[in-house]
Each structure stands twice: as structure tokens, then as C-alpha cells.
Design brief:
7-stranded mixed beta sheet, globular, about 260 residues, alpha/beta
Amino acid sequence: MTEPKIFSLYSGSKGNSTYIEYDGAAILIDAGGSFLSLSRAVDAVGGDVGKIMSVFITHEHSDHVSALETLEKRTGLPVHMTNPSAERFIYSCSEALSESIINHPPLFEEQVGGIHIKSFRAHHDAAMCVGYRVSFEGSSHEFGIVTDTGHTTDKIVSALSGCTHLIIEANHDVEMLKCGPYPYFLKERILSGKGHLSNEQGAQLALSLAEAGAETIVLAHISEHNNTRELALAETEGVLAGYGVRLDAASQRAPTRVI
């Protein structure tokens, strides 16, 4: 049995996508950015877009779905999405893509080959936003991902506890955001309980998950205008000292290995 292969293909305001491959099956979580950037990133990690079996969408915002139209034309694969997100998304997508969407309640589970994927609620200003926990038949690895949430809850921590490998959000440095170029309404949106996690909030989530057994944590959705990779990593490194967790930060421009 092979080990899972998991990469953040890219992560940020321009696009988000995560590639998961295990025992001959491959899926994506989100398909933002352009189809060209997506296919190049999949190639770069040794995958094949034509062999991806399903896409699981966290929410309907464009940086998580913008490659879906072309991806669907090329592959015809099923797209899993919660009912509220699908209801909003179908107004802006083609009929062919809408027919490929498999609607789910906010909490659902699916099996793709030896990959088991389970959703949980996140808190973002979308029609619905979810994170995912992924397990693999015959493997002790478990993977969790949550970005695009304005705050964390005991339910989010519980949903991710015990995952060995994770992608979590560290979107902004609060002072950089407050003093930065964004208009006031956008700053308020990002800082709200339905916006994005700050470096400090992400670090506290990372601490809870390290205490629950996390081995690798990749920080993601790092703002190009209101954060830096160095600030995000420094904040989390400070709280994880002594836990032995491998820490990294996802890039908007190149794949980042999780496993």
C-alpha cells in the first residue's frame, strides 16, 4: 500500500487547490485559479489532471472554483458541493457544469477509492463554507484542511483533532491589515467572525491540533497585502516550540508538500 501524496497546489486570494492521491485514486479540494495553473501544478507534483476522480469544494467564492468550468469540460468529473453553495454557484456557471455538481448537506461523507472524506462547518461569508477531514484505508495518516473561517470553534478543533497532517489558515497580520491599503469595509469583513483567521488565531488553532497529535501543519491562504510568510511562520513557531511539529507555509506560486 502506498503512502498518501498531498500537496497544496497553491493558496491565496488568486486561487486555492489541494491535490490528494492515494492507492490509485486522486481528488482535489477546491479548484481555484486558472485551469492552466491548476494543470501545471498537478503535473509538477507528478499527478495527472485526467486521472482526478472528484473535486470537493469548500465554498463558492471564485478563488476556490474559477478553474471548474474548463476542468469540467476536459474531464467531466463529479463536483461535490454543499447545497447552499451549489444553489448560489449555479447562477454563474454553465449548464454542463451545473449538471456535474453533486449536492450535499453541510455535513456529508464520501468515499473515492481508498480515500474517505468528511465535511465539517467553517464560518465564512459564503452561502456555506466547510472544511474537510480525509482518511485513507490501510494508512495511519489523516489529513485535515480548514481555511476561510473567521473564527474557530470547539467543533472545528474536534473535527481536526487527531489529524497527522493539516492545512490551516493564517491569513493576515492584524496590524498590517489595519494599517494597509484595503478600504475600511474590506478590513472589517476580514476581521469579522465570518472573515479569515489572523496569524494569532491560526497559531492558537495549530497549538490545539499539536496537542492532539499533529505531525505536520502547513499555513495557508496567506495574504499578499496584509501578511508575510515569515510573520505567519514566526507566530506559529512561537507557540509550537517543543512539540516537534513540522511547520511550513503554502505558496500562491508553487506547490507545497504536506505528505
